[in-house]
Design a protein that fits this description.
By secondary structure, the protein is α+β, with helices and mostly antiparallel strands. About 45% of the residues lie in helices and about 20% in strands. The chain has six helices and four strands. The protein is globular and about 50 Å long.
Length: about 150
């Protein structure tokens, strides 16, 4: 599969996101989960398989919420070694490039374990909430920031 085709497809159907979960067992009380995904209708599942074949990381799953199939990469190692370098070399052309830049910064911070620090976690939260403005979130940014002050 051609590299520019993948970038173009991601410009339209892809997503770079960072989600959060409240976890009491963590020192900060907040788990940070970056994710790269491409969502397509079942009739295009072969395209998702080709993307997975190209990147050689991640998996494909059915999403009940939006009733489509998703190719998804969540491993910070795979994101940093495979996904991020691809989009540096073959840049996105839409406003999704801004999401990618924020995503890249978050992944760099996570790789340095800064997501485990009450000092740096607010920066990660702020960056994450600049991404995918139309996306659905489980927690409001204010709730997460308040959790850190406990």
């Amino acid at each position: 599969m051609e590299q520019y085709y993948i970038t173009g497809l991601v410009d339209g159907e892809g997503s770079f996101s960072v989600s959060f979960s409240l976890k009491r067992r963590l020192k900060t009380g907040i788990e940070v989960r970056p994710s790269f995904s491409v969502s397509l209708n079942e009739r295009d599942i072969e395209t998702l398989k080709k993307i997975r074949e190209y990147f050689k990381v991640g998996g494909i799953r059915f999403s009940k919420r939006d009733r489509c199939y998703k190719y998804e990469v969540r491993s910070i190692k795979d994101l940093r070694r495979t996904i991020i370098p691809h989009f540096i070399k073959y840049p996105l052309q839409t406003s999704k490039q801004k999401d990618f830049e924020a995503f890249k910064k978050v992944c760099e911070m996570i790789s340095k374990n800064l997501h485990r620090s009450r000092v740096y976690l607010p920066t990660i939260i702020e960056l994450a909430y600049t991404m995918n403005p139309s996306g659905k979130r489980r927690y409001k940014k204010e709730k997460l920031l308040k959790q850190l002050s406990k």
